[in-house]
Amino acid sequence: MLKPALEVPDLDVAWRDVEYCVVDVETTGLDLRRDTLISFGSVLVKSGRVHVSSCESFEIKPSRPISIGAMTVHGLREQDLDDAPELGQVTDRIVAQLDGRVLVAHAAWVERAFLTRPLRAARRRWKPAVVDTAALLRATGLAPSGTGYEPDIEVSAKHLGLCVHTPHQALGDALTTGEVFLALTTKLEQQQPGLTAHRLVAISDEHTLT
Fold it and tell me: Exonuclease domain spans which residues (predicted)?
């Protein structure tokens, strides 16, 4: 039996009047069908501000081996996660962060794909409104279009004069992404006074890699 679907907020309002959940995940690899989550980090954006007190972060016991490529990026080994909870044990914590909010992530196809599967296993329907900071970098002319590659979040943050928080750790990358999101959205708002959350999501869609 399906449980209630995760809600999407009303987007036909000023973008600052909507809540956003900025997410980053680490995984066993990038095979969207087989690899799984091993780390989740998120922070909420409310009223146009990052709320550090809302941070959520936890590691997850992998259900398959961690690839060498993934391990060299995030540094997490299987033995490091022996005492971590299994994915099914933390799904409610993920839902609590995402429900009723717009998903924000850098190269958001990764987070959306890896979060959809455990939510589906928990019988929670999820069709999120998404803002991709990589797409916003292209929309604002701060990253080139047509390259087939996503801009690096750390390089982008430094270019914007922002802090980089513990790279390649889920919570650190979520915090960096949240600050980049606010900088880019403020820039778009200057170009498009009255920017709504609906228009912000649309801009992201228009500049997302296909």
Answer: 19-190
